Amino acid sequence: MPSPPSSDGWTFAHGIGGAKDLPISPELAIAGATAALVVSFTVLAVAWRTPRYDAAKSGRPAPAWFVGIVDALWWRVLWRTLGFALFAYVATAAVLGEDLVSNPVFGVFYVWWWVGLVPLSLLFGPVWKAISPVRTINAAFAKISGSDPDRGVFTYPERLGHWPAAVGLFAFVWLELVYPYSTELGPVRLWAAAYVAVMLVGGALFGNVFYERADPFEVYSTLVSRMSAWGRRDGVLLIRSPLANLDSTPALPGLVAVVAVLFGSTAFDSFKDSTRWVQFIQGSDISIYLLNNLALLAFCVGVGAIFAAGTMLTGLGDDLQRKHLPDLFAHSVVPIVVGYVFAHYLSYLVEVGQLTLVQLSDPFSNGSNLLGTGNLEVSYWLSYHPTLLANIKVIAVVAGHVLGVIAAHDRAIRILPQRHQLTGQLPLLAAMIAFTVGGLYLLFAA
């Protein structure tokens, strides 16, 4: 096994680190995962005949003492202050720091922000909504002007739904995975500045609903938080089953595009490091940059198209239009996205995440230790236990798909006509199996 990277820098060739990290049979893993999906569907078809997850009825109120803390003004202000303080600290490092890969901006941008939002949102709910610096700035502007941050100049168009968030997420993964200068400070600064500018203008024009629908990171964090145990109904904080919480996901336009970008980009991240793709682009006369752009787009569009086909190829009643089915079932992809993010980025998050904490103490690369974390040692324990790491990755992928099948089945028996409640799910099951096989193949091939 190669030695882990030193603590004074790293390359952002993140993810699973190649097949050497997975010392188990890929054929066995793929066969087992496919069997798990088929068996799960069979059991559901026999034993699960009525809907069990209803966000409108499920859940119990959280303890009063806990609600008193979470809903208190000082609690919300505390997290907004911490979020803005981190934003200001990292922005200072971005503006005044050295253009070196050891600058903590890269770790915060690509690791803490992108990957770290997943476990945080699973544990605590919609984290980005609570700490978002653009929400904080917008609220401050509204306070100064005497306006209401919840209300903008215009009403946010319903037809836009989550489409702006999907575009923003694609712009982020393009910068991370395709743009050849993604580890230079200039492009990261420009991307972050454009994000802040668009969010502030959108918030001023449409109010806070713009962040709920169009902020790529708030939409991302909120979607993942649907798999947490924390939910709200009519403003009341609830504790409920994650799958019941998932049922509360609004079926807005563009939701399929969001999950397709999240899942498709992660799959592409594995694919671009596979031996076959590397050999192909090295032997091709076409620009590598162009090929990677086309491949990323193909993965995202392909995931969306396969899922849309799997949901639309079913019989319908008179009161349900086929074109609405993909958005109605899109919530079932969220567990798959979460499982695959953990499978693909686990060691990257743990190890480079620690390294980022070390580097945050020296934002200007001058040997300072401002936060007292500069002398911490990075633990590479996971990399030194490849069998355990492999098992965690495979379990994460399989569990995500099984939960996706359960969520889709529960939605199907609620909205599909009785005669199509089982047969109507077969195309979607085929799509889920295709995602499972493809995901595990890429996991091993990278």
Automatic annotation (TrEMBL):
Bilayer-crossing regions: 28-48, 77-97, 109-128, 160-179, 191-211, 288-316, 328-350, 388-406, 426-444
Keywords carried by this UniProt record: Membrane, Transmembrane, Transmembrane helix
Lineage: superkingdom: Bacteria
Presence of keyword Transmembrane: yes
Protein name: Fenitrothion hydrolase
Record organism: Nocardioides endophyticus
